């Protein structure tokens, strides 16, 4: 497998997002968090968000990328600023790994984050082209905006 090549590499921390052009590669590390990538194949622009929670109880004055619904809103605002429509993008979902596998799926934040991602794809009429969700442990995600490719490396909780 060929690693992505780009002039600029951006590392996303939890709660951050980035939207940019072809000469950029975006990296992040995910546990129970989820990353959503948007890629416009004709314009070779796109972005990624790394959210921590499905939503917040009380909306704030500004959008906060820590929350799924607000993180996707930030990405879609960037898409609009580039005079593109959401349905023109290829969307990929990553993360939602169980960091504490002994806990129930229904009380697990990873499970809630995965459900939120899928709900947002449907709500915003986005074209889901791939997903790598769930499982145990964490993963590294690298998104190359020049070609839309995403590389994922898994690290199971049982591996050293």
UniProtKB/TrEMBL annotation:
One of its GO terms (molecular function) is protein-glutamine glutaminase activity. It catalyses: L-glutaminyl-[protein] + H2O = L-glutamyl-[protein] + NH4(+). The keyword Hydrolase applies. Signal peptide: none annotated. The keyword NAD does not apply. GO terms for biological process: chemotaxis. It holds the Pfam family CheD. Its EC number is 3.5.1.44. Gene3D superfamilies: 3.30.1330.200. Keywords: Chemotaxis, Hydrolase, Receptor. PANTHER family: CHEMORECEPTOR GLUTAMINE DEAMIDASE CHED 1-RELATED, CHEMORECEPTOR GLUTAMINE DEAMIDASE CHED-RELATED. Probably deamidates glutamine residues to glutamate on methyl-accepting chemotaxis receptors (MCPs), playing an important role in chemotaxis. Belongs to the CheD family. This is Probable chemoreceptor glutamine deamidase CheD. It comes from Pseudomonas fluorescens. The lineage of its organism: Bacteria, Pseudomonadati, Pseudomonadota, Gammaproteobacteria, Pseudomonadales.
């Amino acid at each position: 497998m060929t690693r992505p090549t780009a002039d600029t590499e951006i590392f996303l921390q939890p709660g951050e997002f980035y939207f940019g052009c072809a000469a950029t590669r975006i990296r992040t590390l995910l546990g129970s968090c989820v990353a959503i990538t948007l890629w416009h194949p004709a314009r070779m622009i796109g972005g990624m968000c790394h959210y921590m929670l499905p939503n917040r109880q009380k909306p704030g004055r500004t959008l906060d990328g820590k929350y799924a619904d607000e993180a996707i809103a930030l990405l879609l605002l960037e898409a609009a600023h580039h005079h593109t429509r959401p349905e023109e993008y290829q969307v990929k979902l990553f993360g939602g790994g169980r960091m504490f596998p002994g806990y129930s799926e229904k009380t697990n934040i990873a499970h809630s984050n995965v459900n939120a991602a899928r709900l947002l794809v449907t709500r915003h009429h986005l074209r889901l082209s791939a997903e790598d969700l769930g499982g145990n442990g964490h993963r590294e995600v690298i998104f190359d905006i020049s070609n839309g490719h995403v590389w994922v490396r898994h690290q199971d909780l049982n591996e050293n």
